[in-house]
Amino acid sequence: MPTINTSDQSGRRALVVDDNPLMRVLLSSMLMHRGYQVSEQNCAEAALTKLKEEQFDLVMLDIMMFEMSGIELCQIIREELGLVDLPVVAYTAHGDLVNVAHMRMAGFTDFLFKPVEARKLDSVLQEIAV
Protein backbone atom coordinates (compact mmCIF):
# COMPACT_ATOMS: atom_id res chain seq x y z
CA MET A 1 0.00 0.00 0.00
CA PRO A 2 1.50 3.39 -0.97
CA THR A 3 2.23 5.84 1.81
CA ILE A 4 3.07 9.47 1.74
CA ASN A 5 5.99 10.99 3.58
CA THR A 6 4.20 13.46 5.83
CA SER A 7 7.37 15.50 6.31
CA ASP A 8 7.18 16.40 2.60
CA GLN A 9 3.79 18.03 3.23
CA SER A 10 4.73 19.97 6.38
CA GLY A 11 3.87 23.61 6.07
CA ARG A 12 1.68 23.10 3.03
CA ARG A 13 -1.71 24.75 3.26
CA ALA A 14 -5.01 23.19 2.26
CA LEU A 15 -8.49 24.67 2.00
CA VAL A 16 -11.37 22.23 2.55
CA VAL A 17 -14.79 23.40 1.32
CA ASP A 18 -17.89 21.41 2.25
CA ASP A 19 -21.31 22.35 3.61
CA ASN A 20 -21.35 19.12 5.65
CA PRO A 21 -19.46 19.73 8.91
CA LEU A 22 -18.75 16.04 9.47
CA MET A 23 -17.12 15.66 6.05
CA ARG A 24 -15.13 18.87 6.57
CA VAL A 25 -13.75 17.62 9.87
CA LEU A 26 -13.00 14.15 8.51
CA LEU A 27 -11.13 15.38 5.45
CA SER A 28 -9.36 18.11 7.43
CA SER A 29 -8.19 15.52 9.94
CA MET A 30 -6.87 13.29 7.17
CA LEU A 31 -4.93 16.20 5.67
CA MET A 32 -3.58 17.39 9.03
CA HIS A 33 -2.37 13.85 9.71
CA ARG A 34 -0.36 14.19 6.50
CA GLY A 35 1.26 17.45 7.60
CA TYR A 36 -1.06 20.02 6.03
CA GLN A 37 -2.20 23.19 7.77
CA VAL A 38 -5.92 23.20 7.03
CA SER A 39 -8.49 25.96 6.73
CA GLU A 40 -12.16 24.99 6.49
CA GLN A 41 -15.02 26.82 4.82
CA ASN A 42 -18.67 25.78 4.73
CA CYS A 43 -19.71 27.49 1.49
CA ALA A 44 -18.40 28.63 -1.86
CA GLU A 45 -18.62 32.36 -1.12
CA ALA A 46 -16.52 32.02 2.05
CA ALA A 47 -14.03 29.90 0.12
CA LEU A 48 -13.68 32.54 -2.60
CA THR A 49 -13.04 35.21 0.01
CA LYS A 50 -10.40 33.02 1.66
CA LEU A 51 -8.72 32.30 -1.68
CA LYS A 52 -8.52 36.04 -2.42
CA GLU A 53 -6.94 36.72 0.99
CA GLU A 54 -4.56 33.80 1.44
CA GLN A 55 -2.40 31.41 -0.56
CA PHE A 56 -3.03 27.66 -0.52
CA ASP A 57 -1.18 24.67 -1.90
CA LEU A 58 -4.32 22.57 -2.29
CA VAL A 59 -8.09 23.03 -2.42
CA MET A 60 -10.49 20.15 -1.70
CA LEU A 61 -14.05 20.78 -2.91
CA ASP A 62 -17.25 18.87 -2.33
CA ILE A 63 -19.21 18.74 -5.57
CA MET A 64 -22.72 18.95 -4.09
CA MET A 65 -23.14 22.13 -2.02
CA PHE A 66 -26.26 24.21 -1.51
CA GLU A 67 -25.62 27.67 -2.93
CA MET A 68 -23.00 26.83 -5.57
CA SER A 69 -21.68 23.48 -6.73
CA GLY A 70 -18.03 22.54 -6.47
CA ILE A 71 -17.94 22.45 -10.27
CA GLU A 72 -19.06 26.09 -10.48
CA LEU A 73 -16.61 27.05 -7.74
CA CYS A 74 -13.72 25.35 -9.53
CA GLN A 75 -14.56 27.23 -12.73
CA ILE A 76 -14.48 30.54 -10.83
CA ILE A 77 -11.17 29.60 -9.18
CA ARG A 78 -9.67 28.88 -12.59
CA GLU A 79 -11.26 31.59 -14.74
CA GLU A 80 -12.03 34.57 -12.48
CA LEU A 81 -9.31 34.20 -9.85
CA GLY A 82 -6.79 32.98 -12.42
CA LEU A 83 -5.47 30.23 -10.15
CA VAL A 84 -4.80 27.83 -13.00
CA ASP A 85 -1.86 26.04 -11.34
CA LEU A 86 -3.47 25.55 -7.92
CA PRO A 87 -4.30 21.87 -7.35
CA VAL A 88 -8.08 21.60 -6.90
CA VAL A 89 -9.38 18.15 -5.98
CA ALA A 90 -13.07 17.24 -6.08
CA TYR A 91 -14.69 14.70 -3.83
CA THR A 92 -18.14 13.35 -4.47
CA ALA A 93 -20.56 10.53 -3.76
CA HIS A 94 -21.62 10.59 -7.42
CA GLY A 95 -18.88 9.00 -9.50
CA ASP A 96 -20.74 8.33 -12.72
CA LEU A 97 -19.12 9.13 -16.07
CA VAL A 98 -21.19 12.28 -16.60
CA ASN A 99 -20.04 13.79 -13.30
CA VAL A 100 -16.44 12.78 -13.96
CA ALA A 101 -16.61 14.49 -17.37
CA HIS A 102 -18.04 17.66 -15.79
CA MET A 103 -15.27 17.65 -13.16
CA ARG A 104 -12.58 17.35 -15.82
CA MET A 105 -14.13 20.12 -17.94
CA ALA A 106 -14.36 22.41 -14.90
CA GLY A 107 -10.61 22.18 -14.39
CA PHE A 108 -10.25 19.87 -11.40
CA THR A 109 -6.76 18.48 -10.96
CA ASP A 110 -8.12 15.18 -9.68
CA PHE A 111 -11.10 13.70 -7.87
CA LEU A 112 -11.95 11.28 -5.07
CA PHE A 113 -15.09 9.34 -4.33
CA LYS A 114 -16.81 9.24 -0.95
CA PRO A 115 -16.10 7.76 1.41
CA VAL A 116 -12.58 9.12 0.90
CA GLU A 117 -10.10 6.32 1.45
CA ALA A 118 -6.71 7.15 2.99
CA ARG A 119 -4.74 5.25 0.34
CA LYS A 120 -6.53 7.05 -2.49
CA LEU A 121 -6.00 10.43 -0.82
CA ASP A 122 -2.31 9.55 -0.46
CA SER A 123 -2.12 8.68 -4.15
CA VAL A 124 -3.66 12.02 -5.16
CA LEU A 125 -1.39 13.95 -2.78
CA GLN A 126 1.67 12.19 -4.21
CA GLU A 127 0.60 13.09 -7.75
CA ILE A 128 0.11 16.78 -7.02
CA ALA A 129 3.33 17.02 -4.96
CA VAL A 130 5.45 16.08 -7.97
UniProtKB/TrEMBL annotation:
Domain (Response regulatory) ranges:
13-129
Alphabetized UniProt keyword annotations: Phosphoprotein
Instruction: Write the signal peptide boundaries.
Output: none
One annotated GO biological process? phosphorelay signal transduction system
InterPro entries given for it? Bact_response_regulator, CheY-like_superfamily, Sig_transdc_resp-reg_receiver
**Which positions bear 4-aspartylphosphate?**
62
**What is this protein identified as?**
Response regulator receiver
Species assigned in the record = Dechloromonas aromatica (strain RCB)
